[in-house]
Amino acid sequence: MSSLSLRASKRFKATPPTFTPWVCHACRQRRTFAFTTPFNQQQPPPPQQQQQDDNPTHFGFETISSSLKASRVGAVFSSVASNYDTMNDLMSLGIHRLWKDHFVRSLNPGIRPTSGKEQEGQRILDIAGGTGDIAQRLLDHATTINGDTKTHVTISDINPAMLSEGRKRFAASPYTTADRVDFLEANAETLPTIESNSIDLYTVAFGIRNFTHKDVALREAFRVLKPGGVFACLEFTPHLNNSLLDAVYKRWSFGAIPLIGQVVAGDRESYQYLVESIERFPRQEEFRDMIKEAGFMVPGGGEGEGWEDLSAGIAAVHKGVKPV
Predict the structure, then answer these.
(1) What is this structure's pTM?
(2) Structural domains of the chain in order of their starting residue, each with its CATH number
(3) Is 131 annotated as a binding residue?
(4) Is 187 annotated as belonging to a binding site?
């Protein structure tokens, strides 16, 4: 799939796993954690949302009440926040950095200055931005590649521990002193402080699979984006393109990753959940259709199109454009 730039944006079923993964049954009994977000970040859910919160949902391979998922996921990321980047390096052998670099290059953030004209830059919302590594790449690309010193990124995450890691990353950054980055603790399913039709680019990398109601989050993304704005998602996929490689990958994921979590971070069960959450995420074609159902136009759009597989389908890039 060809790169989709913001300036060109106007041109525009989940299947049960076939592979039974190895699971550490000793780790399936999970602790109960308490996790809250500040009251001023919460809004009373509408009746439809309240009904959704009574429905069962998945937490890895467990089935729990939707109302409990946010706190359970929050506990996981509070636990892994300080080791998150290191663990990503170990789990992916550093390949996640290449995926993220490619993801940002394909978006080409920033607006090249026009001679004699004041440039406003873009407004970017990085959802589940946590440690700020995607935001850093977005600002670096806008500045160094497009010469844009105005583009601004809001890093949003529901988890204060993850945001704390992001603040550390940007503490001594010139982007902070230039007021080009800020932080928002919020649930991606409801963003009351973000105005409708105000965002040029909405990014979410390796986060949306943890959302309780992905369809609600997609509709909220549609609301906040400007007409012609771009939704862009980088996420793991549940199955690789090659069945043999998929079997090897599953053994690695379910056998090695939780063990690495135990040895390096002293937290096996959080990394067990992270692996299980990938297995529960929709296949590429299903997630593409969810993006379309939220109102977006999807590049390509034909059967088997509308996303870009990375590394034989370990991860995929999905994009959608809000119609003008």
Answers:
(1) 0.77
(2) 77-321 (3.40.50.150)
(3) yes
(4) yes
